[in-house]
Amino acid sequence: MTTVQQPSTKQDILHHLLKQGQSTVQELAEQLHVSPQGIRRHLKDLEADGLIVHQVIQTGMGRPNYSYTLSQAGRDRFPDRYDDFAVSLLDTLAATVGADQMGSILRKQWERKALEYRDRLGNGSLKERVDQLVALRLAEGYMAECHPVDVNGATVEQGDRFILTEYNCAISHIAESFPSVCGHELEMFAAALDCKVERTHWLVNGEHRCGYLIQPK
């Protein structure tokens, strides 16, 4: 089987699918500046490796089109989980102390993380703090980015409102066993940035990314 090792068109395809959720051959060709024939060859290899899957898009009576998405194995190519030991440890802790105490422990952990973030984000503008948060999340294994909110085709004033997007989850295994951590993460961002933070997209709900609207209180 073909494997993806060095940065390559195949890696670019995987990154694009991670960010967009799904794409056709033509969309990939246009975005990556590679011929459709070349894209098809790479997609064939990636599908043979089990890293992507396709579905048929029937539009009228003509030749069907195909839309490609990452398989679970494809998503696993990106840093998206702690060691199984961490999940096992939390399971043991939950069985030992009970659900209520476990909830309190998780909350204290996120409060501690929020204080750490807040100290490292500094006292700059909201944009500067958001940019620094993205850098911290990238260092922790998240594929994160942030953009100013676009309102009716016009970007709002710098430093006003932002969308933070994370295309993978570095604690996905933990979130599966302890869904409350996602709520604590939302609170953590709000406390660290001293802002209002709302969830716009959620991997746990089957979407291909987590999204957060960040704006002043």
Automatic annotation (TrEMBL):
Q: Quote the InterPro entries the UniProt record gives.
A: ArsR-like_HTH, SUF_FeS_clus_asmb_SufR_cyano, WH-like_DNA-bd_sf, WH_DNA-bd_sf
Report the Pfam families cross-referenced here: HTH_24
For this protein, the record's Gene3D superfamilies field holds: Winged helix-like DNA-binding domain superfamily/Winged helix DNA-binding domain (1.10.10.10)
Record's superkingdom? Bacteria
**Which positions are tagged coiled coil?**
none
Kindly give the PANTHER family that the UniProt entry links to this protein: SLL0088 PROTEIN, TRANSCRIPTIONAL REGULATORY PROTEIN
Q: What is this protein called?
A: Iron-sulfur cluster biosynthesis transcriptional regulator SufR
Q: Which organism is it from?
A: Stenomitos frigidus AS-A4
